[in-house]
Amino acid sequence: MFSQMQRKILILSNFGTYDKDLFLHPLSYIDSQRLSANMSLAKGDSRTRALSVRDDEEGHLICRSGDVLQERYEIASTLGEGTFGRVMQCIDHRRGGAPVALKIIKNVEKYKEAARLEINVLEKINEKDPDNKYLCVQMYDWFDYHGHMCISFELLALSTFDFLKENNYLPYSIGQVRHMAYQICLAVKFLHDNKLTHTDLKPENILFVDSDFTMSYNVEKKREERTVKSTAVRVVDFGSATFDHEHHSTIVSTRHYRAPEVILELGWSHPCDVWSIGCILFEYYLGFTLFQTHDNREHLAMMERILGPVPSRMIRKTRKQKYFYRGRLDWDESSSAGKYVRENCKPLRRYLLSEAEEHHQLFDLIESMLEYEPSKRLLLADSLKHPFFENSGVGEATGTKSWEGNRDISR
């Protein structure tokens, strides 16, 4: 018999990149204009009709605007679609007509099983955080509708990546970075305290609660620029989350946010999430990805250019000796790839946009998160006490600074 994690690996290996992403975190695929329009739907009486339960030839549930599922969820519109199923915006009549996101899985066993695995994690998070204080996306409900697994989520707004993209990759301000960083650290600390590793943290998986913005005109760049009104966020995508006692697959995380111990196949745990957060904060601050590559050797070369040499202990221990020669990274700096890394990467502190103290404090935090050795990498409990967050009021603004729980959801 396969373990839960092994089943998860087998299931997700059958997904394409887009479909896996949309399956695991559908809320980040919401079209912003469609979302804005749908959020303004009237919450009063609306026409409904009897639903004839039918599937199309691909296994999707056939449903239209006005259909009602479980005498509760009234279909309003489609937010996203993939081979796994569809994500619909619905009116939840048991929540006072509130809009929700409903993921409707195809009546296909491999997709149904993947949904069950995600539901298991989401249920346990809900159990230990019933008031949604710790900023993980909230699952409201799940049910099997004539062979279709359905999951109801709070309806969130754009991802922090999509907002960045739609804003021409204009970086977030230092104050915005601070508030988002604190919330991410708090949410992921909650997971770690409860023996869970997220494994796929990235800007696409950090969603704004509300992505409304103000506009201003940048005379120098001759363009309109957006400033998000509220930086309240939620962490999403628990389809790859792994409990400490579960089987740990060899490779986790999206490439650009992947920790060195994962690349070198040295085993991983909670610290791989911390590395990902360091990469995310850099991206928020600069507007571009720190490690823009799709190749392991080049990825390691970029790390060395930005952070210094890979520790000798890690080189000795790794089974990936093909990347090294005589205890050093086997990398030709005179090659075209070598030239690319040299021209596009530089020591971390040289990316500072200001010499102001708060900017140096942010980079000190990022450096602590990008320690090569997982055992030396910053613990998220310590990150919340970092000078970057001190005396800023960010903890009180988040409303969760005093939480000291150590609650176990892994059993």
From TrEMBL:
Q: Locate the Protein kinase domain: which residues?
A: 73-389
For binding ATP, which residues are annotated in this chain's numbering?
103
> Which cellular component terms (GO) are annotated to the entry?
nucleus
The alphabetized UniProt keywords are: ATP-binding, Kinase, Nucleotide-binding, Nucleus, Phosphoprotein, Serine/threonine-protein kinase, Transferase, Tyrosine-protein kinase
User: PROSITE patterns, from UniProt?
Assistant: PROTEIN_KINASE_ATP, PROTEIN_KINASE_DOM, PROTEIN_KINASE_ST
Single annotated GO MF = protein serine/threonine/tyrosine kinase activity
Catalyzed reactions per annotation: L-seryl-[protein] + ATP = O-phospho-L-seryl-[protein] + ADP + H(+); L-tyrosyl-[protein] + ATP = O-phospho-L-tyrosyl-[protein] + ADP + H(+); L-threonyl-[protein] + ATP = O-phospho-L-threonyl-[protein] + ADP + H(+)
Cellular localization per UniProt:
Nucleus
Q: Which SMART domains match?
A: S_TKc (SM00220)
Question: What Enzyme Commission number(s) appear in the record?
Answer: 2.7.12.1
**Biological process (GO) annotations?**
regulation of RNA splicing
Report the sequence similarity comment from the record: Belongs to the protein kinase superfamily. CMGC Ser/Thr protein kinase family. Lammer subfamily.
Q: PANTHER family, alphabetically? A: DUAL SPECIFICITY PROTEIN KINASE CLK2, SERINE/THREONINE-PROTEIN KINASE DOA-RELATED
Q: What protein is this chain from?
A: dual-specificity kinase
Question: What is the name of the gene encoding this protein?
Answer: clk2a
